[in-house]
Amino acid sequence: MAIRVVPDATTRALELRKGTADLELTSLSPDMIPVLQKQPGIEVTEQPGSNYAYIIFNFDDPVLAKRDVRRALALATDRQEIIRYLLRGQARATDGPLPPNSWAYEPDIAHFAYSTEQAEELLDRAGFPRRAERGGMRFAITLKTSTEEYTRLLAAALKEQWRVVGVDLELSHIEFATLASDLTRGTFQLSTLRWIGVNSDPEFFEFVFSSKRIPPAGANRGRYRNASLDGLIDQARVESDREKRRRLFSEIQKDVSEDVPYLSLWLQDNVCVHRARISNVQLSPSGDFDFLVNIEAR
């Protein structure tokens, strides 16, 4: 078995069609999958994944520091529409970072189903009425993303959706290295990112939400500070009884979902496009390559 790095997605797809490559894992754009699936000799294996897409808020920003604004933006985001048209159904909407296969998963958290009416009510309550001098817009905020096609398309979809409730989303697409530096330094308002693999472990909540984990000490890039949550996280860290830890992580998930430090988007499916001669493709939720040990080739 040989593994080759092919940076260009179109080239990867062509090599699968020609038979000069046998399989790929979650590395093609969603639009490519249905086209390849129709080709003779090619099959697609798809399973629910645990890799997590989200929007991060900067709590040092006076607008985004208001919880009603963050909740309104969650309500104004039609995740199902984006999943249907941008991701071709290859994801599942979620209201929290922990996937259902985690031992600490808590399903009873705050859920934000798409509702422009509720979003407008919250924005009014937060003190941001529509203004005629702004063309009916309430305020403008900037979303920084990488130049990756997926993030640019997602940003464009969010811009259209949030405009409906009077939020003018300005887009800034920059190279990933610059974006990573801006996120670490806190020089952003909003950004959209993905966690891959690490969000299946509930210890994730300390790393990304504890006030002690603001960079460079961790990945709390949004500068989120919540003393009550910090206390729960500290308790969970030292608790040795698994059931008591599960209850603590349940409270942590509820607090996070209520306060919306992240706008949760979806858990992306793992999709493997492979030649028909490859069988026994059993993908793991985290989308790692361990499944290669068990595949069979005819």
Output the keywords.
single chain; 298 residues; alpha+beta; seven-stranded mixed sheet; two-stranded antiparallel sheet; 35% helix; 20% strand; globular
Please explain how this structure is put together.
The protein is of the alpha+beta class. The chain has 10 helices and 9 strands. The chain has helices at residues 9-18, 32-37, 67-75, 79-85, 116-125, 149-163, 176-185, 204-209, 227-238, 242-259, and strands spanning 23-25, 42-57, 91-93, 139-145, 167-173, 190-195, 262-275, 278-279, 296-297. Strand 4 (139-145), helix 6 and strand 5 (167-173) form a beta-alpha-beta unit. The longest helix has 18 residues, at 242-259. The radius of gyration is 21 Å and the shape is globular.
Show the helix and strand layout:
Layout: H1 9-18, E1 23-25, H2 32-37, E2 42-57, H3 67-75, H4 79-85, E3 91-93, H5 116-125, E4 139-145, H6 149-163, E5 167-173, H7 176-185, E6 190-195, H8 204-209, H9 227-238, H10 242-259, E7 262-275, E8 278-279, E9 296-297
Parallel strand pairs: 4-5, 4-6
Antiparallel strand pairs: 1-7, 2-6, 2-7, 3-7, 8-9
Helix pairs in contact: 3-5, 9-10
Tally of extended strands?
9
What is the typical, i.e. mean, pLDDT? 94
Percent in helix: 25-40%
Beta-strand residue percentage: 15-25%
Residue windows where pLDDT falls under 50 for at least 5 positions: none
User: What overall geometry do the principal axes of the alpha carbons give?
Assistant: globular
Give the oligomer, counting copies of the same chain as homo and different chains as hetero: single chain
**Strand pairing plus helix content: what structural class?**
alpha+beta
Order of helices and strands: HEHEHHEHEHEHEHHHEEE
Q: Radius of gyration, Cα only, in angstroms?
A: 21 Å
Separation, N- and C-terminal Cα atoms? 14 Å
